[in-house]
Amino acid sequence: MRRVHYVNSSFLVADRTCKALLRYCRALAVAGRSDVVEVPVITETGDVATAHLLIGPASEIFSVPVDAGVDDPRDDEVTAYLERETLRLQPARPAWGEEMTDVPDLDEYPDLQEP
For the whole model, what pTM was predicted? Predict the structure, then answer.
């Protein structure tokens, strides 16, 4: 689980969702574009909800690992969407092996792997 800090707030997200979100944020920044995305989060009361984030070149977003003691709000469809959009913006993207090494990679989405 990771705490994402965004604007003047923060929320908890699944590790892999966070990794995909940060990758997409960077791809949008490089492309000079923005997007609104929906991400499953854990609220302050421990409930699962959906956050709507406007991300783009001016986004100041970061994450830190946490031991939340709650179920991971993992959503494979959201993660796959974020990775597809990242790949669309950065078809020749760099290797991610050295980034967020404390989070498992997203290799379980074979349709998103480069040929």
Answer: 0.76
